Amino acid sequence: MTTEIPILQRCSEYQDRIAIIDEQGKYTYATLLQDAQQVTHHLLSANRSLQEQPICFLVPPQYTYVQTQWGIWLSGGIAVPLAVSHPLAELEYVLEDTGTSFLIYHPIFEEKALALAEKFSIQLINILELPKVDINIALPEVQSGQGAMMVYTSGTTGKPKGVVTTHDNITAHIKALSEAWHWQKEDRIVNILPLHHVHGIVNVVASALWNGATCFMLSKFDLEKIWQLVEEDQLSVFMAVPTIYAKMIADYKTLLDTKKTQVQQSFRKMRLMVSGSAALPVSVLQEWEGISGHVLLERYGMTEIGMALSNSYTEKRIPGHVGKPLPFVQTRVVDADYKDVSTGTSGELLVKGPSVFSEYWQKPEATKEAFTKDGWFKTGDVVQENENGIYKILGRQSVDIIKTGGYKVSALEIEEVLREHSEVTECAVVGLPSDEWGQEIAAAMVLNDPQFDLELLKDWLKQRLAPYKKPVHWKMLDMLPKNAMGKVVKPEIVKLFL
């Protein structure tokens, strides 16, 4: 097999090493590359190349996920991972937005796949039922500057946007993390994160495979299995979001003393533990250090830029801070006029570098708006840089972006869905501070019938919003607080909940 895709070129050097271990077995790099070509054969058919067509796939976080992703890449397509937790309505939006011709699915999601195929003119491919074919086929030329992946992210415009990254973008992202976090081929990591976000896709899985390491893949979050891997000294690197660390701390307290001792000893043999995707409460950091002996390495990134900032692998880490720019990343802190501010002054973080995305899918105006005139990406995050060049994230510029449990959620998207219900006259969604989740989603509403059963509304939402997007706090009001211009004042709504 010959390919210009950097990660696949790199992985072809590892051949007999174990790449992935999941519930079904162990798979070498050679097997993974061969199985990916089976996917390529069925995608290409009579075509010579997919020429950057988006290909959606609905596959759990296991070996078949990577097989599918790599098969799409070898075909010259853009891999679009669908969120396995999302209801049909959200999956329909992505299929319609991408205009995909294919949906690759795992049979555990067959019901959803059939429903999507009925609505859209797409070809279904069952990843477990690919007839074996001769893989000695001519592969299309794929340039490293071509589109490789599209991940959907929430924004202030409501509906999610497809963030297109090239093979070069992904490669730059992986190289920066490999250098900063000292990845090595002897490493072993477990993925316990959703694979429709870059945290799991790139930071964990792709970074491990780039370096010839082994990645355990769990189809679902399973504390018993995680403790087993830890006790058996199977892991050298561990990455999670703050909510997972909080859950593990709570569960650790219920373990027998002998098991606690074994877990502690095993944690201390590991070389790196990372927390990201949401602010890490200092209390969680301190408790985890007491259990594991590790000061969690905090870092900062976004779907559009990959990882941009990271605390040091070797030097002292400062709680509540996310470190310095990673290799190849340039940063600036600016005021409202995009002029640089002095050290210690808060401002918006701007980022430039080879890992920054290429475009929002078919949204040229949104893409243009995301950058300054001289090409810096506007993160929308307010930061402060200290005299040592170490950054602290202070929050979002927009109150309409809620960061909960590692997910970035658009309040406007939730409001848009709520307003579709016949009983909802007005609504406003806000984020409330939470030590465990970073923020929790809250909805204030004016209803046609004040006596309407809220449980009916919650059941209705199950079919329309992913679990992590659903409000957990509710307040029924006679009217929403508004300013003189008639605009809802969201800080006042937060006060009503608090």
Account of the 3D structure:
The protein has helices at residues 6-11, 29-44, 63-74, 88-98, 110-119, 167-180, 198-210, 223-231, 242-252, 257-269, 282-292, 364-369, 411-418, 454-462, 490-497, and strands at residues 18-22, 25-28, 54-58, 78-81, 102-105, 123-126, 147-153, 161-166, 188-191, 214-217, 237-240, 272-275, 297-302, 306-310, 324-325, 330-334, 347-352, 359-360, 377-385, 391-396, 401-404, 407-410, 424-434, 438-447, 473-476. The chain has three domains: 6-204, Rossmann fold (3-Layer(aba) Sandwich); 221-346 and 378-396, 3-Layer(aba) Sandwich (Rossmann fold); 401-497, ANL, C-terminal domain (GMP Synthetase, Chain A, domain 3, 2-Layer Sandwich). It contains 15 helices and 25 strands. Strand 24 (438-447), helix 14 (454-462) and strand 25 (473-476) form a beta-alpha-beta unit. Helix content is 32%, strand content 26%. With 498 residues, it is an alpha/beta fold. Residues 10-361 form the AMP-dependent synthetase/ligase domain. This is Acyl-CoA synthetase. Residues 413-487 form the AMP-binding enzyme C-terminal domain.
Write out key terms for the chains shown.
single chain, 498 residues, alpha/beta, Rossmann fold, GMP Synthetase, Chain A, domain 3, 3 domains, five-stranded mixed β-sheet, four-stranded mixed β-sheet, 15 helices, 25 strands, 32% helix, 26% strand, globular, AMP-dep_synth/lig_dom, ANL_N_sf, AMP-bd_C
Reconstruct the topology from this structure:
Blueprint: H1 6-11, E1 18-22, E2 25-28, H2 29-44, E3 54-58, H3 63-74, E4 78-81, H4 88-98, E5 102-105, H5 110-119, E6 123-126, E7 147-153, E8 161-166, H6 167-180, E9 188-191, H7 198-210, E10 214-217, H8 223-231, E11 237-240, H9 242-252, H10 257-269, E12 272-275, H11 282-292, E13 297-302, E14 306-310, E15 324-325, E16 330-334, E17 347-352, E18 359-360, H12 364-369, E19 377-385, E20 391-396, E21 401-404, E22 407-410, H13 411-418, E23 424-434, E24 438-447, H14 454-462, E25 473-476, H15 490-497
Parallel strand pairs: 1-10, 3-4, 3-5, 5-6, 9-10, 11-12, 12-13, 24-25
Antiparallel strand pairs: 1-2, 7-8, 8-18, 13-14, 14-15, 16-17, 17-19, 19-20, 21-22, 23-24
Helix pairs in contact: 2-3, 4-5, 6-7, 9-11
